[in-house]
Amino acid sequence: MSNSISRRGWIASLKAALAGACAGWAGTAQAQRYVHPRRVFLGENTRKEFREALEQGRIQAAIIPTGSTEQHNEHLALDCDATCATLISQQAALRLYPAVTVSTACPLGYAPYHMARKGTITLRKETFTAYVYDVIRSLTTHGIRTILVVNGHNGNHAPLLESIPAWRKELGITLDSETYISAYRDEELAEFLTSYRLLKEGKLDTIARRTAMSHASEVETSILMAGHPERVRPFTMDEYDRAAQNYESGYSPAVARYLEPFTKEGWPKGGNPENARDRARQERALYATKEKGERLIEIATRFIAGKVEKMIEATAKGAPWPPAA
How confident is residue 24, by pLDDT bands cut at 50, 70 and 90? Predict the structure, then answer.
């Protein structure tokens, strides 16, 4: 792919995304009657509005988005993960309006392995899980008995999975977590995403290219182009190469302490292709379009809304969660 062709295609796609931003997303509830898209956010309501919605039984569940503030290559805003998780949570809540409220997002997560890239902020695992627990406990105290954590950052996935069962048992509620990326299946993505089609066809010739699939690449870039184009910056590969960043060596001692648990025997000579993977992500972003992002948002929204519906049903029936296999 030549840079000149990529540049023209990228700019055209980004302009289209920006032009369509004001149109917004229409959920099922909005198709029936207009609901302001931000109405589903807990923080957008007054205490009176929220109290009355609870008293009248209109709110049956809550979604808590979690993400990270971390590097997303040269072109995406640092808050990409929390923004994507919040967007998909909002769209799911709009489909189920007025039964679901979306809590204030957790904008920071567990991301020490990104600390070589400037701008990343990481929490300790125990700090992150303490935050999420306190939000869950607060919502439970107000009478919400069904809660789904919708995660947008892979580093948060394991800490949530480890913590949720104990919290569920302690609080006695229908509680779960789901990383929205789990809505996607490689075979389905290969139908409309260039990077996944190339992977399926065996045309990605290096470890770096085969593993640079979602973070800051075609998936997340497309989602932001569709939902938040103001968080996407134009770029060229020439600009990327001129920056000449090195993520495999030359760290300060402070950065090295963050990275040490993630290094392999003999790393970086042992084959951790961080520089190559970072460049591959930047290349993949050139495949992104607003239209692909709309489809990705639709798939994830349908997945999350479906899970929340099943959780609400379980709570209403007094059935255990998760369901017995």
Answer: very low
